[in-house]
Amino acid sequence: QVQLVESGGGLVQAGGSLRLSCTASGRAFSSYAMGWFRQAPGKEREFVAAISRSGGITYYADSVKGRFTISRDNAKNTVYLQMNSLKLEDTAVYYCASGYVVSRASGRYDYWGQGTQVTVSS
Question: Is 12 within 8 Å of 18 (Cβ atoms)?
Fold first, then answer.
């Protein structure tokens, strides 16, 4: 099975930056598209960003476009989410996921990490 582990979450002030990482094992990382999703208290899980297996295609939610950047290093089996200009509404548990097709839809992803908490304070 594919195992995904997120890291890099924490507490940050509004306007600050944070970089999340997700490392994968169990399958060929480069064969999978990767996505980031988040879930805030009382809210449904929502799409944040996604990247194709080669990194050539990226998708972003409108709410994070221009502030967040998704990238991957297949040699390290790692996908990143660089988060800049963080806002209070970015507070959520962030999950990485892998799938065969780059997509904004959570249902297209087969494996999920345990999540990492990001809290933005004022």
Answer: yes
